[in-house]
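debug: dumping io for the single-chain case to check the tokenizer round-trip. Nothing else runs in this session.
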Amino acid sequence: MNQTLYRELKADIEQSLSKSQTLGAAVAVRLNGETFLEIGVGYQDLNHTQPLSKDANFYVYSVTKSLLATASLDLVGKGVLNLDDSIQLHLPDFPLDTSITLRHVLSHTSGLPDYGGMSTYSNAVKATPTAPWSEATFLKLATQNLRFLPGTGWQYSNIGYVVLKCILERVTGLSMQQLLHQVIFSPLSLQRTFVPKTLDDVAVLAPGYTTLFGGPELQNMTSLYHPGWVSHGVVVSTAPELAKMIEALFLNKILSSALIEQMLDPVHILGKYPLFEKLAYGLGLFIDLESPYGLVAGHTGEGPGYSVAAFHFPNLVGSRITIAAIVNQDRQDYGLVLVHRLVEVLKKLLETQP
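debug: decoded output
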């Protein structure tokens, strides 16, 4: 990349961070299978003395769902799973009579409840951030009344992905870390991406700031917020490695094109949403069906300390672009905001190239 463009992109990110009073961001852009930009902008400390590294580690939060979906489709391709399998086929003790399929769970059309808006959950996180609920406690929520009959509605459900994780571990005999390492991390030679289990495991995290645990002052959550509070498990990665994973998915380096097409098939259309023209959800992926940049697919992640987004643009002025953006402060959809700012600059650049 020429230095003029580098400075332009860096200045654009700096301006956005300054305007929103956000500490720092790590950003990676891949162009046609090659590294185009990897940069850390801003700071990792409240005193603005330590620059944020481009290789800083973060929780990627719900972008993990795309990786779990990828592992699921890999098993579908191998004939181990079928998208129309009922979850009871693989979890015979699951205490719901209604048939819920893997496709329902992957697409958030299962009707399973979620804990996102539950006061008992949010109060527990704040009261004991270092001591998460057990998997069994999360799964008990799935036995409550369905929000709707499977396949008749859409509601984002972390609980559904807890069920999915249990199925993946049951049918493979592998832990989530072992499975994702086998399907994604190892084939892509990732060095800094893993699934943590304990607070000791996440000592490598870049400071992430929040007021969740007692404001109004920002507080670094990395030694407080146990990864077990992300009920379906959470991946730790860097912006460059996250971009590499999302790109590899769409370049057929992990799954066949037929399986990717199934992930991209919109199961439910949500409609107009900030920064999306016609938002839909496939299997573990958000999709914009009417974006001015052509097809857009990827996922966001939000949680204490970080805001994350990783999206692929398969035909941006004839080029394949993947952008991952992570900020070290929990600002709703801010990773997504940065992705859209960067793609606007890149579109203009590509349009002016001979």
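debug: round-trip ok. The longest helix spans residues 334-352.
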